[in-house]
Structures are given as structure tokens and as C-alpha cells.
Write a structure and sequence with these properties.
The chain is of the alpha/beta class. It has helices at residues 21-27, 47-60, 75-87, 105-112, 128-142, 161-176, 192-203, 220-237, 264-277, 286-299, 322-332; strands at residues 17-19, 30-35, 65-69, 90-96, 116-120, 147-150, 183-188, 209-214, 250-251, 307-312.
């Protein structure tokens, strides 16, 4: 029973599901990749699927401005800026983060697309982000704008149909390729992509199995949010499936130094994917999730010969984030020859 929701189509679907022959041979598994980095608008990425639905709600409400939140190099913010540009709206990205000292990576793309980026250094006080959002909404609405607020990652009930739709798309592709029953592996940040996939696969009765790999600390607040989010979505869309915490397969032991922090293992995972398959991952989400997948294979959590579909959620501009770029440059300089 597919859920019903309105969207504004802005991206090319379905995205490809590709077999990775060299990595499959190297790792001893049957590895595929779902190319949601190829969603076309604003350099692509997973948030575009959610934003098609969020954009429809924004237009229905008469919005003239999209306002969202995230870290300094938020991929979601960049994709929101692209949607705002496509719809002729203004865009503001609010970051509880320190300005990195240069306009590069996603920040550069945000500004190229005309978005305003607002930084406020973190204070550690609870509710800081909500307070900043309130101030910005008051400011812009006082100036005559109609602001539509999108939470971090577009991870709410309104955005969830994007990855419910992806789950259905992926199930059909897997069956057509003869890989039904495969394990789908996805990075887990703000939970929205994982939850959309979970609900779609479960509610539609797919035999694909979903494993999430947390890329940031998955503490008590996220544990509570996980069940609340599912219950909220189930009620909102009238889904018939049920789920408890034990039904959500999320690996939480591969966070390494924390959210968006440089890590040598993650860089090695990025090099492996790039040098074996010519596909670029990012150091915050997909690179870390792929490094976790490699760990799971080594540790026997993923069995040899298992069919794996890795979700590429995009984020490649993050490679040019200053604190990541300096580490890549240090490791890769020996391959540069100047004649």
C-alpha cells in the first residue's frame, strides 16, 4: 500500500543501481551501489528526494523563502538552496557552527545559488538552534517574506515519502536484477533517509533487508526519536506495518571521532572506492558508512558472498571542506609531479 503525498518533480528518477565488479572480487561479497548522488539538481544527493515533497508543501502554503538548518557544510542546505532557486524563492541556511574561515565546498555552492548562510557559534545551551530559527523567521517575515521552515536533513513526516518512494524503486530494481533479499546499507545521520527506506521496505513487504550505519553519536535522544519518528509517520500516512526498537538495524559502533571529523580509515575507504570503481564518496557520510561496511565484512557481521546494496547519498563537495582537504592534500601530494 503505497503512501500518498504531493510532490514537485525536480530530479531524474529512477537513479541507477550498479554492480561493482572490482570491489566485489576484492571484498568477497556481491556489491552494488544505488546512485542517489546522481539526483541531478544542485550537484545531487539524497536530500533532493525529500525536498520534492517539502517543496510541494511550501508552495501550497504560499512560501517565498525556504529556511533550513545544518552544519557549516550541510549537504541538505546546498540542495535546499537549489530547490529555492528552481522555485524562484529565497533561501537562508542557519548553521549552529563556526565559520570555517573561507567560502569553499558547500558554502561556495550555497552562495553561487544565491542562498544566505548564517553562522552562530555553538554555546552548548539547549534550544540554541530553535532560538536562532525563531529570530530569523521573525526577521524575514517582518520584511514581508513568507518563510517555510525545513528541519535538519528534511527529516520529518512531510519529507519521508521521498525515501519511501526510493525503497519501492530499489525493490523493483533489485528484483529485476535478480538480487532480491539483498542487504541495503545506508548512512544514518538525522534518520530521515533510513526511516523512509525502513517504512517503504516494511510497509510494502519487500524482502530487502536494511542496515543503517550511524555517522554521528547515536545517543538517548536519537533512540527516543527513532521510535517517535516511526509512530508519527505510521499515524500520519495510515501505514499498516508496526515496528519496535529491535526491528531497526542500526550499527552505532563506527562513528569514529564523531560527526564530520577527519579519519584515516574513512579516507582509505574513499580511496578504495575511487581506485577500484571510479566513484567518489564523501568524508562525512558515505565514506564513513563505507568504512563501517568494510569493518563489518572484516568482523564477520557481513558474510562472504552476501549481496549488498550500498546507498550513495552524495555529499562529494564535502571533500573540499578545509579540515578534510588538508588531510587529503597531505596524503596525496606524493603523486604530484611538476616538470
Amino acid at each position: 500500500m503505497k503512501i500518498q503525498a504531493k510532490k514537485i518533480q525536480m530530479i531524474h528518477l529512477p537513479t541507477p543501481l550498479e554492480y561493482l565488479p572490482a570491489l566485489s572480487a576484492e571484498l568477497g561479497v556481491e556489491l552494488y551501489i544505488k546512485r542517489d548522488d546522481l539526483t541531478s539538481l544542485a550537484m545531487g544527493g539524497n536530500k533532493m528526494r525529500k525536498l520534492e515533497y517539502l517543496a510541494a508543501e511550501a508552495v501550497d502554503q504560499g512560501a517565498t523563502m525556504l529556511l533550513t538548518v545544518g552544519g557549516a557544510q550541510t549537504n541538505h542546505g546546498r540542495q535546499t538552496a537549489g530547490v529555492a532557486a528552481r522555485l524562484g524563492m529565497k533561501c537562508v541556511i542557519a548553521c549552529i557552527d563556526r565559520y570555517p574561515g573561507e567560502i569553499s565546498a558547500n558554502i561556495l555552492l550555497d552562495r553561487i545559488m544565491g542562498a544566505e548562510v548564517v553562522f552562530e557559534a555553538p554555546t552548548g545551551e539547549k534550544g540554541q538552534q530553535e532560538a536562532l530559527v525563531r529570530r530569523l523567521i521573525e526577521k524575514y517575515e517582518a520584511a514581508g517574506e513568507k518563510v517555510y521552515y525545513i528541519p535538519v536533513g528534511g527529516s520529518n513526516a512531510a519529507g519521508l515519502p521521498g525515501y519511501y518512494e526510493c525503497a519501492c524503486e530499489l525493490d523493483a530494481q533489485a528484483r529485476a536484477m535478480g538480487i532480491g533479499g539483498a542487504r541495503v546499507v545506508s548512512a544514518v545521520g538525522s534518520i530521515g533517509t533510513y526511516m523512509g527506506l525502513f517504512c517503504g521496505l516494511r510497509n510494502e513487504g519487500s524482502d530487502l533487508r536494511l542496515t543503517g550505519i550511524a555517522i554521528s553519536d547515536f545517543g538517548p535522544d536519537k533512540e527516543v526519536r527513532l521510535q517517535e519518528y516511526f509512530d508519527e509517520v505510521r499515524q500520519h500516512f495510515g501505514m499498516t506495518c508496526t515496528a519496535e526498537r529491535a526491528d531497526f538495524d542500526i550499527e552505532t559502533g563506527y562513528v569514529r571521532e564523531g560527526y564530520n571529523q577527519p579519519n584515516a580509515d574513512v579516507r582509505q575507504a574513499i580511496y578504495l572506492m575511487a581506485r577500484k570503481e571510479g566513484i567518489i564518496l564523501d568524508p562525512c557520510y558515505t565514506g564513513k558508512a563505507f568504512a563501517g561496511l568494510l569493518d563489518m565484512i572484516r568482523e564477520g557481521k557481513i558474510q562472504k558472498g552476501e549481496k549488498i546494496i550500498f546507498l550513495h547519498s552524495g555529499g562529494q563537495p564535502g571533500i573540499n571542506t578545509p579540515h578534510h582537504r588538508v588531510e587529503f592534500e597531505r596524503e596525496l601530494l606524493d603523486g604530484i609531479t611538476v616538470l
